[in-house]
Design a protein that fits this description.
459 residues, Leucine-rich repeat, LRR (right-handed beta-alpha superhelix), 2 domains, FBL13/AtMIF1-like
């Protein structure tokens, strides 16, 4: 950050202003309505907004009311300049409200200064607050005024530190909350935190740790979107005993990505529209299989569901769970993602059998068949009810032209009674060979089709 001359001494600034006023462009800018000038400044980074004070006299103090302030330290060697710049900008600011305040830097030994800046934003009725803090030297606590801020509507908190919560917590207008890399260690205050969000609509939890907590209850009556991302590996001791309990009366979207090192349970999810589950399979275990089964029960009301094939790997290691799969009565679209789906998988078959109203079946990364092709009549036995009454469209991506893929398509065409179309997207490798595509298409259209109106689309 270049900050050495952004806030000039009065004499030097006056001289520059006089020189600029001689220029016609400076005068024309100065003649614009002040409201319009402030609107223009709101789109500039704060460094550039401060520099506009040199354009002409009418711009001299406009930057002091710019609604958006975002400070990020790119070069640690310029830390002193950065800290002084932030301090002077906030000290010289007028009394107008802030729309956005963002701070991204290492804290080190400057905890009190950082807290003063955040408190200043709260005092200016900030609406969007973005806090990204790392590298702490000693203890650190966010200012207590933050936890009772009445104006903040969006809060992004990224901090590689134990979050010390205030005993008094109330966010009456917070609608979007993102928490990253934060460690929660006080069970009572953590429960207070996640139950003091009366109008929260969207919650994202990325790689959070729950040290010493048995249960984390997320209770927000208007919450409609929840994302839990646990893609970074933590030791099992960080999460094994902790259960995430979601009370989601209004929940419409749920996304999970990670190793499922803790239980995620739902009290109510009747309004769920969409869910995406991506599990990382570093090793299969019955414990994680049971967590996966419990999670599927919790999201069984979803209308649109995306699963990656690692889900199948976990369920296969505990055959007893397949006998008690939930019924996905509302499911109309099922997508298998990330890896090729094996049509011979008993877990995939069970999920299809428990999805009676399924209309759209998608294999994003392609489809294969691992069994003996001479016995393909038994692949979809017992037949999933949706194949006989509801399944209208099948989409297959990343088709490579291998024989096992071709036979998997044959089984789908043979058993889908009311299918309108099957859309096959070729991989980049296969798309470059027109001769193979022609041969493939000729074979495909010769396969028996239960649905006589089914169109085959090759993309």
């Amino acid at each position: 950050m270049k900050t050495t001359s952004l806030i000039q001494e009065p004499q030097k600034k006056q001289k520059l202003n006089e020189e600029q006023d001689i220029d016609g462009n400076g005068k024309r800018l100065g003649n614009l309505p002040e409201e319009l000038l402030r609107h223009i400044l709101s789109f500039l980074p704060i460094e550039d907004a401060v520099r506009t004070s040199l354009l002409c006299k009418s711009w001299e103090y406009l930057w002091t009311s710019t609604p958006n302030l975002y400070f990020e330290l790119y070069e640690p060697a310029k830390r002193t300049l950065f800290m002084n710049f932030v301090e002077r900008v906030l000290c010289l600011r007028d009394s107008s409200d802030m729309k956005l305040f963002g701070l991204c830097c290492d804290v080190l030994h400057d905890a009190s200064r950082v807290n003063t800046w955040i408190s200043t934003a709260v005092k200016h009725n900030v609406q969007v607050l973005y806090i990204d803090l790392e590298n702490f030297e000693g203890e650190f606590s966010l200012p207590s005024c933050l936890f009772t801020c009445k104006t903040v509507t969006r809060l992004h908190l990224n901090s590689t530190h134990i979050l010390k919560l205030s005993p008094t917590i109330c966010f009456p207008n917070l609608k979007v909350l993102t928490v990253k890399n934060v460690t929660f260690s006080n069970e009572y205050l953590t429960q207070q935190f996640f139950s003091s969000l009366p109008v929260l609509e969207e919650l994202q939890l990325h790689d959070c740790k729950w040290v010493g907590l048995k249960v984390v209850s997320i209770s927000a009556p208007k919450l409609h979107s929840l994302t839990i991302n646990e893609s970074r590996m933590f030791r099992l001791s960080h999460g094994d005993a902790c259960q995430v309990m979601v009370f989601g009366d209004s929940l419409q979207q749920f996304y999970y990505r990670g190793f499922l090192l803790r239980d995620v349970c739902f009290s109510k999810s009747f309004s769920l529209e969409e869910s995406q589950i991506h599990i990382f399979c570093y090793k299969t275990s019955k414990k994680i299989a049971y967590r996966m089964h419990k999670l599927l029960i919790g999201i069984s009301n979803a209308k649109f569901l995306t699963l990656n094939c690692e889900v199948v790997e976990y369920l296969k290691c505990s055959a007893e769970l397949l006998l008690h799969m939930p019924i996905f009565n509302n499911l109309i679209s099922l997508t298998w993602d990330w890896d090729q789906a094996d049509l011979d998988s008993i877990a995939i078959l069970k999920i299809l059998q428990k999805s009676p109203c399924l209309k759209i079946l998608t294999f994003m990364s392609g489809i294969t068949l691992s069994s003996n092709r001479e016995k393909d009549d038994w692949i979809l036995e017992p037949m999933p009810p949706c194949f006989l009454s509801h399944l209208k469209r099948i989409e297959v991506g990343s088709y490579d032209g291998y024989t096992d893929e071709l036979y998997a398509l044959k089984i789908l065409l043979k058993n889908a009674a009311v299918l309108d179309e099957i859309i096959i997207t070729c991989s980049e490798h296969f798309a470059g060979n027109l001769e193979k595509q022609e041969n493939f298409y000729k074979q495909l259209i010769e396969f028996p089709r239960w649905s006589q109106i089914c169109k085959i689309v090759l993309e």
